[in-house]
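Changelog-linked ticket: S-adenosylmethionine example.
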Amino acid sequence: MFQTLKVLNERPKPFSRYTAEELWTDPHISARMLAFHLDADGDVASRRPALIEGIVDWIDRRLGLTDRAVCDLGCGPGLYSARMARRGAHVTGVDFSPRSIDYASELVRQESLAVDFIQGDYLKDALPKNQDLVCLIYGDICALSPDQRRQLFGKVRASLNSGGHFVLDAFSNPQYELRKEGAAYSRRLMDGFWAEGDYFGFQTTFLYDDLKLALDRYLIIEPHRTREVFNWLQYFDDSALAEELTQNGFDVVQVVDALSGEPWKISPHEFAIIASI
Ligand SMILES: C[S@@+](CC[C@H](N)C(=O)[O-])C[C@H]1O[C@@H](n2cnc3c(N)ncnc32)[C@H](O)[C@@H]1O
């Protein structure tokens, strides 16, 4: 027990373990996540509907969605995919959560919208070709190591038509300043989020000030199994992420406020980058 807790409190090397799949595809956790995605009053897994509508609106005004081939990476339950399809886009949504893909497929089926869904890992699996626009929305880039980002940027470039656009948003450095280190322990930590039955949950939050990186490290102990989940969140300086995109073959068109699409002013909010190839 001492050894287990000692390890839990040791600061892991940045991005030393990637457990995103556990977080999004476990049958119990993904049901809780879906509820968060669909919660109209909160911004845990997806933003609130009015904010999503506003984002799709600025993307449409700025880049045009009608008759465009759009790939929505990490589409979750299709909240952006469906809205873009209603504006005339031919959307392919990619996500590794079967539960979210099932929900999204039913959503677009009911309205006969032009959306295909692929259940897959955007870091490993083939992405659709000949896309006019690829989106990666709600800070998905922040969960990835520098190597994974490089890998993903290459795949996005290969899926875009010449002149196509890549829109991604990210959590900003001022948001990192609001984070605190700490530890928590309780029976059924986070109100049963981690498992259906009984368990003990431990959470340790580490901050890496030099990198503006946060890690929420969870240890979940059930009667029959023990799991660890590493939740990395990289906060970005907008010009550093823009430079990274440039180094990976993109032209950065503009850095904007993620919610409004207006020019970015440094603030404790997410920014978005519009890039092209
Ligand atoms: C923060 S949620 C955002 C969902 C959606 N973009 C939205 O804002 O409503 C991240 C989504 O990305 C998916 N995801 C994370 N990593 C992924 C990967 N490597 N491959 C495919 N999907 C991934 C998760 O399953 C989840 O649905």
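Closing comment: Example verified and attached. Residues 20, 24, 37, 45-46, 74-76, 79-80, 94-97, 100, 121-123, 137-138, 140 surround S-adenosylmethionine (CB under 6 Å). The CA atoms of residues 221 and 272 lie 38 Å apart.
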